[in-house]
Specification:
single chain, about 90 residues, mainly alpha, 434 Repressor (Amino-terminal Domain)
């Protein structure tokens, strides 16, 4: 199964979803930073963490937040988890 940037998540495993998200974030990183090393140094993470994330999608949540903040993408999380006065009734 493909794990391209435009992949839809419906039929993907969690590992595949993580890879797709990592690729999407990598695209944004490349727009602002030429290399993973430059990016890692700028945000205070190790090169190996950034490289592993972009290859596998594996990362600690706090490190993902650091990456998203550096790429000005953290607001997408706000939109994703905003409940907008919706009540869930059981």
């Amino acid at each position: 199964m493909s794990t391209g940037v435009n992949e839809e998540f419906s039929f993907l495993s969690t590992a595949e979803i993580a890879k797709v998200l990592a690729k999407r974030i990598q695209v944004q990183r490349k727009k602002k930073f030429k290399t993973q090393l430059d990016f890692a140094e700028h945000i205070g993470l190790t090169y190996s963490k950034v490289s592993r994330f972009e290859k596998s999608g594996n990362i600690q949540f706090k490190d993902l937040l650091i990456i998203l903040k550096a790429l000005n993408m953290v607001d997408e999380l706000q939109e994703l988890f905003c409940q907008k006065d919706e009540l869930i009734r059981w």
